[in-house]
Design brief:
480 residues, alpha+beta, Beta-galactosidase, Chain A, domain 5, eleven-stranded antiparallel sheet, four-stranded antiparallel sheet, 9 helices, 12% helix, globular, disordered C terminus
């Protein structure tokens, strides 16, 4: 005792991390020779080596003999569980099934007809260790790519995802974070200037280096699955993160503090797990992104039970709206009349009122509606949170089942713009999702955000306003 030991420094070694990765990629030429964008599919731990963990480091010595008596000392007592392993690691490939799509369908957007023209492939994969069989489906379009995973099965399972998007060095990004939920202000930053660990809300748009073109990362066909956020590593890669991994936003913490912990629990899915399509739109300029149809191409057609006539179903309405919440302005009756005049000048069909209208006398609201109607502008009203959470009708106000755009009541029907169901405006609109699912279901600022008329061209200077507004049609149910 009290003397220096003579054991070499390498006598105790932690288990190594034996990890062999595999990459498949395809290059797409952009704007001539020497410039290209690369779509890359990466599989981690392909050879499926076991990764040990939980090494016992408790050395116990006999006070008399000095011998170490802990038989587990230095041994790995656990392994990383299979459920937390990447199913792409250690896979067997089946026979790919290829297909082609070439079709058109009516659309309410920057043009009246959408084009779905792509080459697709379904790649059967089997995870060797768990024998889990699943499919990687990929579609290649002239203006981008989309891919998803479909994992058949029964019972309740909890998916997670670590899809990585590695951006070219020197790219410039436009994005907003998730602290203000889905209503953040877009900022312009170089790839390396994005803070490590920072979160980015899709769509994330970036300009390729040396003016080689533009691309945007987003998702499509988000049904019964957690919404995707992106997290930067500070070295040029954005990783997909599902809702349970993303800190609750300030508006959510403010209004629903009691549910913050609940949101940290991953959402379970019963039956087949079909991830949303991960979409990368690619084009020579911003106009190509504005006119890209991939997001709605990968969605299923409208459910005929709800939309018997598709986009022409009578209870659907579409249009563009001014919204003082993002644009600023005077939130008074006179200020909203000014917005009505501006909407008429722009050819916009609607003016959206935030909750500030709830303190107005009904005669004032009616006067604004009449004033706007005379200028060809309709009013959409959104109930404030306090009013929406009460089933009582405020004193002096009748119960009016009016059209409104309450973002917490939106759901997406594929290829049909935003839908909210008929609800008196004083009925509670707080419909909490399953654990791990954030109330991100309104797709206004996330995927429907191209405020350009058909044929209009975007410029880099206008991109911030393009990304900050929603002018793909919002739809609603008109009261009977």
């Amino acid at each position: 005792m009290n003397s220096r030991g003579n054991a070499p420094i390498t006598i105790i070694r932690q288990p190594g991390h034996n990890d062999w990765d595999m990459t498949l990629f395809k290059n797409f030429p952009v704007l001539g020779e020497g410039r290209e964008i690369q779509f890359r599919w990466e599989a981690y731990n392909v050879l499926n080596h076991t990764q040990f963990s939980s090494v016992n480091t408790s050395a116990i010595f006999n006070n008399t003999s000095g011998a170490q008596t802990n038989s587990l000392f230095g041994q790995a007592t656990g392994v990383n569980p299979v459920d937390q392993a990447n199913l792409a690691g250690g896979v067997e490939f089946g026979k790919p099934e290829t297909y082609k799509l070439n079709q058109t369908y009516p659309w309410n957007g920057v043009r009246s007809t959408a084009i779905d023209n792509c080459n697709g492939v379904k790649v059967p994969l089997t995870h060797r260790q768990s024998r889990t069989a699943y499919t990687l489906e990929i579609r290649a379009y002239n203006d981008g790519i989309a891919f998803r995973h479909v994992v058949p099965g029964e019972g309740s399972r909890v998916p997670d995802e670590t899809t990585a998007f590695r951006l070219p060095e020197g790219s410039t990004l436009w994005y907003h974070d998730l602290e203000d939920h889905y209503e953040g202000t877009y900022v312009r930053r170089g790839l390396r200037a994005v803070p490590p660990g920072g979160y980015l809300a899709p769509p994330v748009t970036f300009q390729l280096p040396q003016g080689a073109g533009y691309a945007a990362i987003t998702e499509g066909a988000l049904v019964n699955y957690s919404g995707m956020g992106l997290q930067a590593d500070g070295a040029g890669t954005l990783y997909a993160r599902l809702a349970h991994s993303i800190p609750a936003s300030y508006p959510f913490r403010l209004r629903y503090a009691q549910d913050v912990e609940r949101l940290k629990k991953p959402a379970a899915i019963t039956g087949t797990i079909a991830t949303p399509w991960r979409v990368v739109m690619i084009g020579a300029d911003l106009n190509a992104l504005v006119n890209c149809d991939i997001v709605h191409n990968v969605a299923a057609p409208p459910d005929p039970r709800l939309f018997p006539d598709g986009l022409k179903t009578k209870w659907l309405g579409t249009g563009r709206a001014l919204w003082s919440y993002l644009d600023g302005g005077n939130n008074t009756p006179e200020g909203m009349k000014e917005f009505a005049r501006m909407a008429a000048a722009l050819g916009f069909e609607y003016n959206l009122l935030e909750g500030f209208w709830s303190s107005w006398p009904e005669s004032t609201l009616k006067d604004l509606v009449d004033y706007s109607r005379n200028r060809g502008v309709k009013i959409l009203i959104r109930p404030c949170t306090s009013a929406a959470s009460s089933s009582a009708t405020p004193p002096g106000r009748t119960r009016l089942p009016t059209r409104f755009c309450s973002r917490r009541r939106f759901w997406s029907s594929p290829r049909t713009p935003l839908i909210s169901w008929r609800t008196p405006r004083w009925t509670s609109s707080r419909a909490f999702p399953a654990p791990g699912m954030r109330p991100w279901s309104c797709r206004c600022p996330r995927s429907a955000m191209w405020p350009l008329s058909p044929g209009a061209r975007a410029t880099p200077g206008s991109w911030r306003s393009i990304m900050a507004r929603s002018a793909k049609p919002c739809a609603w149910i008109s009261p009977s």
